[in-house]
Records
---
Amino acid sequence: MKKLSLYTLLLVSALTALTSCTEDFNKDVAAPQSWKQEDGKTISFSAVAASATTIDLATVTTDSVAICSFTAPPVSEGQTIKGFDIVLDGTVKLNVNAHGQVAKADLQSAVTKLYGKRPAPRTMKSVVNAYMSTNGQVFRASSDVINIIVTPVAPLIESAYYLIGDMNGWDGAKLIKFNHSDKDVYEDSYFSVIVKIPANSYWKIIPQSNVDAGNVWADGVLGTITNGDTSMSGNLTRNNPQAGKIATDPGYVKITLNMMEYTYSIEYIGNMALQLYVPGAHQGWNPATAPFVYCQNYDMKYDGYVNFTADNQGFKFTSEQNWDGTNYGDGGNGTLSTAGGDLKVATAGFYRLTADLSSTPLKYTATKTVWGLIGDATTGGWDSSTPMTLNPETGEWTVTTTLTGGKSFKFRANDAWDINLGGNANNLTYGGDNVSVTSDGTYKVTLKLGNPTAYKFTMVKQ
């Protein structure tokens, strides 16, 4: 409990008022007074949290929720109580009524502002303030710090979701994973996938927890409310989920889930090329013999490597191995345009090319790469790369080097981690797992980037 002199009560800056009371108590708050305190004139004010356990807003059915309790300071003749507020974590201020209640919606907004939307208990160090008016000036009495524990309202959102249905023969071993950003799922609740389907394809959604449990049909499966629902957007349910139906011709569709709202939307794309060809000055501008970039995840994002043999060489992306399809040129500032001129690289070299036809505007990148090995299995450890040598005809990088058994390495470009490959020898992935070395020895390591459908490597002991 704090006992504060009426004449030495401190000022506090007004923050957002979040209940039905919207008066700014600080507008006329007097500055601290410096004359001698009068004997015997003190104010007692204390507060306690309304609950020693978590206030779970998902279970609150009223518009307001008790957050604390307190007794108003006593007043003398000529004094009035102007109101109360509570400051959460020294940052967010909510107006609170005389019963220690705040608006549920405003408490939800305050907690998510401080900690995000994930429904986890959040402990906030808080101070309750009482405002009193004396002779036209407003003074404040503050309680000691109390802990308010609140869990915000949010639905269950799992770390990943998978598509199952006619597109994969309802086979739980061939689930199609939805793509997601690297953000927290409660900050980015959207999951999407582009997939090729047969005509009139039925579907459901499998959550990550079912995959982890080894039973894709356990409780938690998501579907439509009505079996065979052909709506291209609607609500998802876990309660007796039914199979939705995409009543279209065969082709590619984009399915997007918003798990904060438990909704889905389906966009019919139709036919989509999995390859974009890269004709240009590096190979005589002949689409029929051009290298290509590949759409590995059916997401209209293409990736591949092309060796440009001279400076300032031009190139384009084409959807066909001729000039009769859709051709993409320079739209300026890293964008593609079907009406654009030639794309160009400034200097000769082995480039990673990407094209994103799912974005607006369409985008591309061209990054010159020089590859090497790095890891505790190499002579340079994790501090420096062991350089590899390019075979420009095959797109293969090789090195013969000493490797240490029981340790590991990865492939990375340009002595940096922006572009690195690891994982399975027959299907390397960006940011994949470290590659293990079984025994000490000298090895010839070959990184094969010439075929973008699957990046591979070999490691042969010499």
---
Amino acid sequence: MIKNQVHSSQSGIFDISAAMLHIIAMTFMLMDHLWATLLPAQDWLTCVGRLAFPIFAFMAVEGYFHTHSFKKYILRLLLFAVLSEIPFDLMYGGTWFYPFHQNVIWTLLIGLSGIHLMEKVRKKRKLWIFLPTAILVVLVGSALGTVGMADYYGAGVLTLFIFYFFRGRKWWCFSGQLLALYWVNVELLGGLMYPIRFLGMDFELCQQGLALLSLLPIWLYRGRQGCHTKIFQYSCYAFYPVHMLLLALVLNYVNR
């Protein structure tokens, strides 16, 4: 979660707070998981759900730069990664133990660990050390995400690195995020293609490419924190395992 952020002088509809971004991402995630469990015929739910992970990845990176203690931040994520594994296995694999796919918090942990290492090297202000370190971290991090079968695999870890390397509000940061996320989601992840006919021409829309739309709320974020009580903070953490557990229990009841 994000702490000690600089509040913008103005707020409004075009200034989304960190708290609102979390709520938006959780809503999109819930829609995607409803499709995966109870409403598989409603493809539009998973289409909207494609926007959730990039927002969570962005907020995790922002959280890294605003937390008081990286150790406490990473341990809190580790705790909820462990707590979320059984609910994730129940929802995804229909069993208490499903070793072939791990929940998304492990993806965030791999990415944030790599970012922490790169930041420690970057602060030494020696470019000739930082560049090879960054390349090695990106390769190892994406490999760990894939071999460890964390959610979104290596592409998920790369998404965190993208928001790290292109962090800022300059035009080249926006352009870098857009192009890099296009490559990760369309070229790397790919997936289901939807045929579309527009102005007499036929196109194919990649479902995973809809994740690029997540950049719209992300770009409207200006660093404003919004609600940040302990109750809200831990409710956001608890939402992940709790909603998956409830969906798994309802699905099990329906399928009896």
---
Amino acid sequence: MHILLIEDDLDLGKALQAALRQGGFSSRWLRRGADAPERLDPVQQDAVLLDLGLPDGCGLQLLKRWRAQGAATPLLVMTARVGLADRLEGLDGGADDYLSKPFEIPELMARLRALLRRSAGQASENWRIGDLTIRPREREVRVCGRAVELSPREFDLLNLLAGEAGTVVPKGKLAQKLAPLGEALDFANLEMYLSNLRRKIGAERIGTVRGIGYRLLT
């Protein structure tokens, strides 16, 4: 999964990127609001970590603009503003969670995982889709209780399908999300990874909508 990090503090930004990488996330780090995307594209990022106190303006303006545009991407606000009015303004402005500085990075990571679970409609860290169990944090998969060994790319593909279980996920979206920091995978490689995944978890668990995409069956 890919995280958009907007934080001007150099030391904190480096520490957060390291923690995200260790947690299995890719990330893009920006230090100014002016460099932030005009719109949030759910294909480009799965969640946003946003500092409100940016050097070239208030991150709250970014948050309100994105929400006014209809963006539903999970977003966690980080700020040194600790007053109740500030917290309420951030939450009412569209933040899904709010963390006051200074904070412990393990807490931020736990809150981020919780946001992503809720976004995927999962109640716990162990995602269950039928007899399929996925543990995103440990990058483990079980089918009927049996451990299944997946390559990193195969796991990421399954995780993407599980995040929208029962829904058709377009090929282009999968191809881009599997290579968030570079050029999207070509469809031939995507289909190769999908074929391997079907072989390992059971072909009947992944449906194809010809010309559109794939769906993890529930």
